[in-house]
Specification:
The radius of gyration is 17 Å and the shape is elongated. The chain has 137 residues and is mostly helical. It has one domain. The protein has 5 helices and no strands. Helix 2 runs antiparallel to helix 3 and helix 3 runs antiparallel to helix 4. Keywords: Membrane, Transmembrane, Transmembrane helix. This is DUF423 domain-containing protein.
């Protein structure tokens, strides 16, 4: 049986409950695709990308959370390994959705920076988890 530390168990529980909100993004996306919500081609692309990134990064983040339990990481590196990808699962979709908001928008606004901050968390989380696994006894 897989034994999780309390922080990993609590984090996973909250993430699974929060993942329910991804369905609201899917519902919004179906409204955009059906034409119930007007959107430019740019906005449609960014909305699709935001929704896809949310789902994939949540799954990858949960995998990293579980794999971190098999490492000997502590402190900040353990936190980054356990939650870095999950933080990116918030920031990157937010960057896609929020930078595309606005009637008739054809280019991202300044909130596109959230994509790049999220990418940094993604790289840090994957790197910490991967190294932690390779260095584990």
């Amino acid at each position: 049986m897989l034994e999780l530390s309390d922080p990993a168990r609590v984090t996973a529980g909250f993430v699974l409950l929060a993942a329910i909100t991804v369905t609201s993004g899917g519902w919004f996306l179906t409204r955009v695709i059906r034409g119930s919500v007007s959107a430019t081609n740019f906005q449609k692309s960014f909305y699709r990308a935001g929704h896809a990134h949310a789902g994939v990064l949540i799954i990858l983040g949960l995998v990293c959370l579980l794999l971190t339990e098999a490492t000997e990481l502590t402190g900040f590196l353990q936190w980054v390994s356990r939650t870095g990808v999950l933080v990116s699962a918030i920031l990157m979709p937010a960057g896609f959705f929020l930078s595309a908001l606005g009637r008739g928008r054809t280019r991202p606004n300044q909130l596109v920076v959230l994509l790049w901050i999220g990418a940094l968390f993604l790289i840090a989380g994957l790197g910490a988890c991967g190294l932690g696994l390779l260095l584990a006894q």
